[in-house]
Each structure stands twice: as C-alpha cells, then as structure tokens.
Amino acid sequence: MFKGKTVFVVLCVLCFVVGTGFSGELKDDWNDFLHYTKIGRYDLAKSYGQAILDGEPDPVALLNLTLENPKGFEIMLLLHDSKPDEALAVVTNQILAVIEQGRFERRSDPQLVVEEVKRLSSDSERGRMTALKRLQEAGEFSVPFMLDVLADPDRRAEHANVIEALPKIGQPAVRPLAAALQTQQTSVKFEIVRALGLIGYPQGLAYLKYVLETDDSSEMKTLATQSIQRIDPTAYSKTSAELFFQLGEMYYSHAESLKVVSAAGLSQVWFWDADARRVVWVSVDSGYVHELMAMRSAEMCLTADPAFEQAIGLWLAGFFKAEAVGVPMPEYFGEGHATAFVYATTSGPKYLHQALARGLEEGNATVALGASEALIVTAGRKAIFTPVGDVQPLLKALTFSDQAVRYSAAIAIAQASPSGRFQESDLVMGNLADAIEKAGQNADLPGSETLNTRYDFRAIEALVKLGATQNRSFDLALAQDALIKASQDSDATLKVLATHALAYLNSPMAQKAIAAVAMDEANPVDSRNAAFMALADSGRLFGGNVDTATVKAIYELIRSADTDESLRENAATAFGALDLPSQQVKALILDQARS
Hints:
single chain, mainly alpha, 3% strand, two-stranded antiparallel sheet
C-alpha cells in the first residue's frame, strides 16, 4: 500500500516537472538529459533537452558541461548518431549547435587568447605548457595575437617564446600566417616564413614561392628556399602561379587535407588589414568556405602571373559553386558585388568553356549550367566549339546527366548558328525537341528559375533563329512533332511562337498545324493574326502545302462579312502567299461578282 502511494507521488512529481518545462538549473537539466538519453527514456530526455534550449543557455557554459562529463557526452553522441528516436535527434541537433557555438566563442575569445600568449613567457614551465596547449586549442585564432607580440618592439622579451610556440600551433595556423605575409615588418615576415617551413604543411608552398619570387631581401629568399625544401623540394621547380592554381583546385575539390575548421556553421577567411597592420578574420558560412578559398587561390595565381588563364575558369566555377549553397555571399564581397553570372558573361567564351569543362568533369550541374547559360549570350559561331584539352565542352554537355544542362548547351549551339553540319547536329535538335515537348514541365529547372524564362520558349526561339538564317547545319524537321504539340498548348505565347518555328519547315503537316492555330476561334485575335503571318511566311518559302479543306476554311473566313478586319487582311495575305492553284483564286473573285 505504501509502495503504491509512493509510485503515485513520484508520477505526480514527474508530471509536474514535465508540465512546467523542467525549470531547474542548466547543470541539472544537462545531467538529466544525459541520464535519460543513456537509459533509453527518450521522451524524458527530449523534454529535458527542450528545457535546456528554452532556457537559452550560454554556449560556453554548456560547452563546459560537456567537458566536465566527457563520457556522458560521448554516449549522447553515439546514441545521436544511431538515431533510435527521431524526435530526440532533432532536439540533440539543436543542442549540439549551441555547444559548437560555445566552442567557437571560447576559441576566438580575444581576452583568453591574449592571456595565454602572455603566459608563454611565464616563469613556470607548467604555465608555459598550459599556455601552449590552450593556444593550440584556439588554433588559427591565436595567430593574430602572437604576431602582435612579434610586431611590438616593447615586448621583445616575449619574442623568443612566441617564435618557438608559433609553428607548434600546426596546420590551423597556415591560412592566417599566409595572409600575414603581406606585413611590411621584415622581422615579422621572417618569422612567418620560418614558421610555415617548420609547420611543414604543403598548403604554405605557394605563398613561400611567391615570397621567393617577389621579395627583395636575399636573406628572405634564402629562408623561403629553406622552408620550401623542408616541406617539398619538388615544389621549388614550379612557379608560385602553378602552386596557387594547384592549391585552388584542391580547395575546389574539397581535398580532405585542406579541411577548414568550422564551428556553429561558420569558418574563417583571413585577410591582411593594412590600416591596422595585422591579420584579421571574416566569418563565413562553412557551406562555401572551400569555394571561397578556391577563388582566393585563383586570385593569387593571377596576381603572381596574369597570363595564367586557367585560373579564370577555376574562379568562375568556384563562384558558381559558392552561390549554389543558397546563402548570401560573405560581407567582404561588399555592397553591389556582381553575381557569378555577370562575371561569367563578362569573362567571355574561352573561360566559360574552362568552367563548363570543370563542371562536366566533376558532374556538377550547377557549374555546368551556369557556364552553359552564359555561353548562350556570349558564344558566337567560332567560339561554341572551343576545345579545353581534347574535349569540346558544349558538345559534351549535350549528353550530360542533368536535363537543364543538356537544354542550355543545345540552345547555346543553336543560337550561335554554326555553319556546316557536324556529328552532334541531330543531338542538338533532339535536346531542343525534348525541351519543347516538356512544355511547362521544365519551368522549375534551375536555369528557368535563374533566368525567369522557360526552356521550351527558349528552344523554340533558337529554332526560329535557325530557320530565319536558313541554317543548314540542322534538320529542323526533327523538331516537327514537338513544335506541333507546342502549337496546341494552352499557353497562347508558346502556341504562337511554335507557329513561327513551323513556318520554316517544308511540310504539309507543319502548314496544317499553323493554319489550325489561325483558324481556331477559341484563340485570341492577336494569336490568330500572328499564326496567319507565320502561314504567309511558310507559303512564301515553300508554297502551298495545305489540304483542300483548310484552303476552303480560310477562303470562307476571308469572304465572310463578319470576320474581324485585321484577321481578314492577314488571312488574305496568307492565302495569297500560299500561291494556290488558279481555280481557287478565280472562285474567290467570282463569288463576289455581280452579273
């Protein structure tokens, strides 16, 4: 009896706690969250986890709790990875985001880093070791403050200890150190070059070679040579431009060896602030930090050698990939920074082919589509088949896995109106026809959204241009079925556009389809007039190919007093352009005659 009452009381307390959102201290909520996660009471664990989030905890405080109970935190991570409970996984994800924010705040806290840099010169060996360990934990964020010491002649007593510790920060120090090579203080630059060599990471090779190529100091050149030899002696035979390009390609492909540290969804890009005379960071979305670094490497490549053209294609591809992440570009781009498409069209076909080839090679539809769309508006007859190595990217794009890329490539080639047939001519027409047949279905393709234009419209416009220029490189008849289907579409604009393209096909079926649009009373008068003008164009090009029933219907429309005057005039123009047999024209004249 007593036990039953006890259970009842406990249950009541639990209900009260759950109902009030577990309003205890953060540490209690955290421990209970771990406890109930561990024993498999995922409902209670989720409630305590939500209580933690609702309390908007200090990220660093929550991080410290994970450090106090590392085993419990590890168990939580293991269960989270196995996801035995989806609802709990959602809450855990949010908690982990707060912890990552705490990790970032602690690592980047200037006050803490400054204190540890000072402690490097402590009289206590334990203090110096502890300081080094914490600076290593701070990673890249420790570099600016360590360099500040080296740049300050009043802190000369600390220089030796900082110089010794700087290379021990390891790989995370490479990017800020590389940016800091722009310093005008020779003594500081000297130690940066030395540190990059001692760290021994290949990421620094391009920057060291650039120092070797550009610095006036023989001592600096000697040290740069020694640092290069320490990291990779074979790099000495390459130019800095080559090394920067290789570095950019590695960033572009997200090479594991170049993995950038991130926390709370943010990573750092490092710059030299000439006014402040120190290296600074800008936090950027981790989703595109590798693309941004690929772009910066390409920029350094062009700085080292403006004639290194491959870097332009790499830069464009990196920009397209960065935009595809779907978040605003970083603040250092500045207000009014042009889009990747603007830079792509400005760059011209040669470099667009480079970007397109890169996108095709890696199977990246975003890059391939961006480049092919830019080629539509920039590539002329001579430029569309520009090779990159042994590949002609636009022709290769015609068989790419992504539908939008295939359509864009076909439109680009057709718009350029090449002279003379080529092996892929029918493939171009097949893609254009496919775009037309899927009228309305492809409005949601990436290129359509970007350009606010449907591929079916654009494909037909390309066919109209081919017909108007009497281009013999393509067999327009291959698109006839697709165009006839488009002429029957409910979209009036698409319908009319299709009749204009059909006007360039020497086919009775094409003329009949045009006439059907012109004679359909359900269509607006403007659409019918446009169709009659297309029928007139077809008649002038190929003569009359319509059947007798269609001729009679047009004739009746012309002779009817009830016909709209503009419609009658355009129907008469089409009738005459069809160059029909004399007896049909004679009937028209005699029918109105009075004896």
